[in-house]
Amino acid sequence: MKKTIKKAKKLTKVETERVAVLKDAIAQLRLKIYKASGGGYVRLRGDEPDWEELVRAQDVLQTAGIKLNLVNTEVQKLLPNLVSKAKPCKVCAKGALAISAIKKFNNLSIGELADSYDLDSAADFKAQEFFGEENADRMERFYESWTEKATTVEEINQIREWVKKYGYHTDKMLIAIYTNAIANNGIFKP
Fewer beta carbons under 10 A from the terminal one: N or C of the chain? Predict the structure, then answer.
């Protein structure tokens, strides 16, 4: 009896980029550069305003002789001075996706960030833009255990099961969500 080997479906560009972002987010969580947390999409230093951190990161680069026009500067250039093992940031599901998307694909300028008020606010729309609104919102609902925002009774039960299995606001929960999405070409399917 011959075994039939199925060829793996080639991923689209969007799927490939989503999977790359998900894998990066998992790596950052495992390295403790991202720390799963509630209370905001991205928190660089507790409750300190992100703008102060962005200006400090720009100052570090300028001290090294790198001149920047802050409004046109891509946030990606500042990330190594903002987020590292020595300077971990707190993230939720959308926050980790947004930071990893910016890191991998350089898609947010300081000027665009100013329109959003801060990095925390920008993370919501960046995650939705990159992963699709419903997909990003579903990941966030499961991570935050927002049963009141669930779209069906079945989803309420699924959220409760995920919390029982992975805990509430844990790295383990985020890694499970992202691993599921990787297995589904960038779409979270609980």
Answer: N
